[in-house]
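Quick illustration, no need to memorize.
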Amino acid sequence: MLPLNNSDSNTKLLGTHPYIVFEMDEISGMVELIQLSSLDGKEYEALNKHNKVIYKELPDETVIDKDSIARLNYKITVDLFAGLVQCRRQKEKLSDQKFNILKDAYISYQLDNAIEDSNIIYVSEQQLKEFNHRIK
């Protein structure tokens, strides 16, 4: 599970969802992530404006196993450190076409909507190491 601290400093567990790296800033030492969740059995989630559907096909994606939704209503940042790469499930990435569509939707949503304080989440290097045994 990925431990996430919200702005109230309460630990919140969002589980072992996959994440897409939205932006990596070496100057600030931060990585911004977009959480993914399977659409399977939750097709109604596609109707929420804070979710963006990403289909596994057209083009075929190897980085996701099934049709998914990206949660645009979260702002998740983590510390950038050498061990973070150990969290990667695989070296593949989302196709440029789908990433650009997702990026535009994420930026647009974040600019046009207030993000709830409980959805602004920061995870420190120490927290990641405590909750993820793969990181050294």
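The CA atoms of residues 2 and 15 lie 6 Å apart.
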